[in-house]
């Protein structure tokens, strides 16, 4: 019966933290393998977009898909979109990385595309500051006349086709990963859709793989109506019971530690299958337990500690970003949606606050922009963070 060593605690709560065991995502991983294989063979294939609430594991899955692409010799790059930021620079850096990974044997072809990439990168967007001295770190001179028109759509199509051409030469592909894709600016979203559309018609070996909040499909289709045919949406959700158990057991067993079945019951009840919570409760439970097997009593002792940590780190850090008016809005949502955090209608929120709906639009829009709530369908609003309603109900506004 080994003693528990906190140094060997395998669990990893944290945004984008690689879990000790990526449980329950085999279907997504094998779907992606098929996509890579088909695209490398010039067959038509839709790209993947992962959607889901915060903490379900979109970022770590995206990273895993990227590793799969790298494993096949593809050139890859990744971007994390931010509101109010043009994609030009992040796309430049990501593609620079992708081109290097491709290891094209012919330096001349490589330099030609790098020159286009540099021109693309240096092309100022209208909103860029004049005195900006940013340099993309590409060692070849910028060419001119390609990917430097200033029109993102034209420039992306040209740049991505050149990059895909290099990949095709070596029988591979290029994959561009975009996390928090719902935050990509309107013009850039439509440029990306248009570029994907154009390149897939050419049979070029390039894909864009996105991840974002549940309303991302709506963002994309509002931008280009054909986006539904362009992307295959994979809803990333809670882990089912066997997967949640595996997420806990597999890493523990590598340390010769196990759980009593009742401990796993209690952990599933607490974490509700949400990967972030699985890691958070698992981590504290490990530290509280004196010996293996971990018991339900250990979980009972750990749960309030884990909850307190989540209240600060996971929920509180987000709540703190909201203004008083936005907090009031969210408390009203929580009252209406109940502990399950159901979506509520914006007009009901207005009624419960005794306000005209229009007067609440600024608070709601700003909450959407901050990524705290999303609108899955017109007139409806829901939290992006699982259990956020429950948290708010147990932490009433002062
Ligand atoms: N399939 C999984 N199995 C176990 N833990 C996971 C899994 N996916 C994610 N996690 C854990 O969940 C947490 C949140 O993951 P993250 O990718 O940041 O979520 P998201 O990007 O959806 O907000 C991390 O601590 C990560 O280790
Ligand atoms: Mg993420």
TrEMBL record:
Record-linked PROSITE patterns? CYTC (PS51007)
Q: Which domain of life is it from?
A: Bacteria
> What protein name applies here?
AAA ATPase domain-containing protein
One Pfam entry name: AAA_16
**Record InterPro entries:** AAA_16, Cyt_c-like_dom, P-loop_NTPase
What are this entry's molecular-function GO terms? electron transfer activity; heme binding; metal ion binding
Q: Which organism is it from?
A: Geodermatophilus siccatus
Q: Which UniProt keywords apply?
A: Heme, Iron, Metal-binding
